[in-house]
Amino acid sequence: MSKYKVLVINGPNLNFLGIREPKVYGKETLEDLINKLRKQACELGIELEDFQSNSEGALVDRIQQAYGKVDFILINAGAYTHTSVALLDALSSVDTPFIEIHISNVHAREEFRHHSYLSAKAVGVIVGFGLNGYSYALEQAYHLLEASKS
Ligand code: DQA
Fold it and tell me: What's the pTM?
């Protein structure tokens, strides 16, 4: 039996990983990423759920569905990071700890990417380490959940 449930959420255009601007986002696909995370989750005794959507409302709905059912959320909200009060409100409503992830170093890019609506409520933010950022986030989620038990 898995000890914890972790939900990985990817926002708009992340279904195009591998196609989209490979110099910025790499050549691996979302499927490659999720397969790798599933393997890692299995080794840690975590049940991994994953969700991707290009639509803000669907992302809000998925976060609400996680209420009381998920121990931790890992989220790359893509461009909605920089625009969406609705996602911040959804994450605050379910009161589930979350880590914010960005594949690219948003602070080295256009100024409109420097601000995140989510960061103030995140446990932590991982930026600029490519897809490895998701693995690191999953490992940290595991350690935080273990620590919160004792
Ligand atoms: C991103 C950075 C965002 O600014 C951008 O809109 C994305 C991806 C990243 O992972 O680096 O879609 O979240």
Answer: 0.97
